[in-house]
Every structure is written in C-alpha cells, then in structure tokens.
Amino acid sequence: METCLMKEKIILIIIIWNTFLICTYGQSKTLPVPDTYKTIQSALNDAQKGDSITVTEGIYKENILWPATSEIQLIGEMGKTIINAQKKGSVIYFSGNLKGLIDAKTIIQGFILINGKPDNKKSNFYGGGLYCHSVSPHLKDLTIKDNVAHKGAGIYCFQSDLQLTNVTISDNQAMSGGGMACEYANPVLFNVTLSKNKANSGAAIYSVLSTLMLHNVSILKNMPSKLNNNHCSAIYLNSSRFILEYSLVWNRGIPHEIYFSEYDQENVLTIQDSDIRANDTLIITNNNGQVIQNISQPPATSSHSINKMYLSPESDSGIDPSDNITNINSIKLIAKGVYGDGMDIYVKGNPVPLTHTSVSDDIFTTDIFLSEGRYHIYARPVGALYTISSLPQPITITVDQTAPVIKSLSVTQISTKERSWTFITEDIDQKLLYQYCINRKANPEPSQSYSTSQSASIKKPDLKDGVWYIHVKATDRAGNESTFFTFNTIVDNTPPVIQIKNISESHLLQKWTWFSDGKEADISYRHLLDQLPHSIPTGDFNAMTQTTLSNVNGQWFLHVQAKDQFGNLSKVVTESVLMDCIPPQINGLSNDPIPKKEKHGNGIQAKLEPLFVLKSIKSPKQY
C-alpha cells in the first residue's frame, strides 16, 4: 500500500514539473535595458523567440547585429531612446544569413537611429541606419537621421518585404538613395516622411527591380548631393513599380521629382489622389514606362479583390507558355478572386473593350485585342471596394509578330581540329533560340531541339576535307520562326606542299623561286636566308615567290614556308648553296734564288736558261 502511494506521489511530481517546464518554455519574456542588460546587443543575444526587449530613455552607443532569432520585439521610448552608431558601421544590421527567419513579427519601435556609417567588411558601404538583406521586419515609430552610406543612407533593403509605419527618414546622405534604397524588394510605407535627404541619384528613394507601395507618404525638401546636378531626382526608378496613394512629392531644390531609368525594363508609376510638384514636366519617363493617374474609385459594394491575373496559356505562343510573349493579337486573360460583375482591364492607363467575358465561381476570363507592341495591363474589380495597393501587380504582355531574320554567318577556324560558325541575326527580341545542323547535304532541315547557343562547331574526327553545309533556323520567344539559312564552306585541313627551284644564271648571283605543288589559290609565303641549316621563317606571310643572294661567301641556306587560305602551314623547305665570290690574286714575279747555268741530275746534263718563278697566291676562304 505504501509502495503504491509512493508511486502516485512520484507521478504527480513529474506531471507538475513537466507542466511547469512547458509553461515556462512557451511563455515570452521581457528583457529590460539597462536595468537587467546594460546594452541592447546583450539583450538581443539572450532573447528567445517571441521575447520583448524594452529600452528606456537614453543614448546607447552601439552597432546592433541582429541575432538569428525570430519574432523579437525591440521597443524604445519614442523620441527619447537613441541608438548612436558613432560612424563605426550601420546602426542596425540584418545579415543575409537570416533569410527566411525574420518577418513582420519582428518589430523595431520607438527609436532614433543616428550616425550610421557602414564599412566595406559587411555591407559594401550600404545601409547607414538599417541594413536589411533578405529580411522583412516591421519598423514603427522610428526616426532615422544623420546617417551616411554609399547606397541607402537611411535604409538599404535587398530582397525584403520591409514594412514602415509612422517613420521619419531625414538628413541622411548617400551617392544613391539618400533616404532609402531598394533592390529586388517590396517595401510598404504607411505614414512615412522622407525629408532633407541628399543623393546624386534618388535623393529620397532609389529603386531597382522593386515594387514600392506608399500610402500617406510625404517626400519633401530632398536635395542633390552636388550642386548643378541636372539629372538628380527625388525618386529614381529602374525596372520598378511605384504606387503613390494620398501622398505628397514636393522637392523644390531638385531638378526632377521622379526619374525613370532609360535602361533595362519598363517602369510603372501609379498615382492615386496624390500631389506631385509640376507632375506634367518633372516626371521624366525617358520613354521607358508609363504613368497611371487617378483611377476612379468605384462604390463600396464588395470587399473582394483580384488575387491574380495572367495570360491564358493557349494565348501564350512560343517555346515558354508562361513568359507573356505572344504573336497572337486576340488574347485571353484570366483573373482569379473575381466576384460580382467581373473586372475592367486597363492598357496604358486606358480601359479597353472586352469580349467573350465570363465569370465562373471566382474565375474571370475575357478576350482583348492588342496590336504589336509591349503593354502593361492591370485590372480592377467592377463595383468592389479596393485601394491601388490591394490590386494585383500588372502584367506585361508583348505581342511580337515579326519573325527573326538570319543575316549572315561568320566562320572561325579555331584550329585544324575544329571549325566554328556564329549566327548573325536581326530581331527586336534579344533572346532568340536556334536550331541547326551541319552536314554534307545541301538541303536538309534541322531536326534537333532549339537552344540558346548562337554558334555551332564541328570537330575532328567528324571534320574532314570537302564542302560542308550549315543549316540554321531561328525562333523568337513569341514563336515566330525565320526561314532556313544555308551557308556552305570548304574545309581543307591539308597543308600545302612547296618546291624551291634555283634559276641562277651566274655563280656570282644565286636566284630562287618557289611554288606550291597543288592547285590551291591564295597561297602566301614567308622565307629566310641565313647560314643556319635548321632555321624557321617568322613574320607575316606575303605574296613574294622569289629571292636572290649575292656578294657573300660561305654556306648559305634558304628556308621557305607556305600557308593556304584555310590557315594550313606547310613544312619548312630548305635549300643550300656554297657561295664563292672571291677571285684569285697575282702578287708578282720573283728570280730563281739559285743563279746557276747548269744542273745535273740522274746522269743528264742540261743547259739551263735563267729561270723566273710565277707564284699564285690566294687567300684562304673565310667561312
């Protein structure tokens, strides 16, 4: 009996202890600074998921490195809690290693962020106040001022869905994006002021390949970093979508209010009930985008909005059925999340007539007609309550009915082992696909699949001498195909064979000519005369086919090499000649050194006349 009671007590203790652990683990904590933690960084390092850090009034000289912990709330006393980076780095730095971990449940609220100056070790001089790489915290009730950076002095965000609410960004300075710089990002700004920021490009906001939604935002008194900068603007857009609702853009000290980059993809600026200084002249589009202004708001009869709009796959011709590039004029659009009376379609800011419309459940389909060109198309539900920021992103549809034209091919012989061809094509589409084959037949059609390669080659052992044909066909992304282009070329990997012939008419002057044994045309040569038997000619090939040699002595060698029109080099052929251009010399006469009139020898007596000796002296040859 006692044993059973003991077991029950133990089990009860275990249950109570486990319950305590579960409650303790699941309960978020509040970490006070400086009461418990002397620095904000130390509190962040100790925080767990869902914890709150409260920071009382004061100046905290820190450079905050955000930890790999989600859902932390960092709360200061608004207007009284200052984080001073002392120009030793960004004030708050979110590393790209936190990708996918930090979302809008991470909150930074109630601080003044000053004196940020990033270095090159972490952020390439980007993000003086905040550096946000692949993270999306929610910034509330902040003042971000007196920061400097190369890009994004106030805030730099990359691949971020950053949210800003009740934030002031002022008196920051950068080369690009004095207030804020966004790249591949989708920030949303509510009740934000950007003022007195400076930059050469985008004094307030600099955007590349981003979508920004601004509601009740004031962009005022921003300035260029340098005086007399005629290209500076308050807002700079490159391949971006920019939505202004109930906002003000008014910067008297700057040449342009909004500037579209003339490069890369088109920009879309949507303006709803906003005031922009001289918007008819100070919005510079550079023919690279469109401005959509003041779409009328329908009466509030439904809260539904369009979730997604896309081009019907059967209307998307070409290789990729999802790239919104087609050669069809009458196209079908599909929208999801549509109720009631359907939707209106706008092209270049103007409504277009719809045909064959239908609504089934929440799927809306309609046909529209587009002539050849590139269009930004957006939609709004008919008779539904919406704001511009709640609409789906516009889609870009390109209608291209012009087939590419292959103008020519250039051939390159990389070596005797490979021949390469490059296709030279004319088309508005810069991303063409090619289909080709290389063989000995004059009229076959390519049968292999398309590829993006703009060149083709053939190598040994397949590459053999003779006439070869390359057949090429191109298609653009809309599905327009070119006619076949056939190019023939002669492959000759056989080196020329040359002969040297001596045509001298005198031993004092040697003359040679040389020629190829074969019937090839366009043979060029180079030669060398020296006294070395194994030399190889160098230098350019030329049309010279003869040479002479005179006024020299000794053994001489003529070396000749040939090259044909295909770049094949012959072996070096060498001929030699012994040159002797020194004549004999007569130095004079001398008397017989023995003045006798008679000599005897072998028993014979002879009467001798005075004798003179003629000596021929010849200098030895110098070799």
TrEMBL record:
Protein name, entry field: Right handed beta helix domain-containing protein
Which species expresses this protein natively?
Candidatus Magnetoglobus multicellularis str. Araruama
InterPro entries referenced in this protein's UniProt entry, alphabetically: Ig-like_fold, Pectin_lyas_fold, Pectin_lyase_fold/virulence
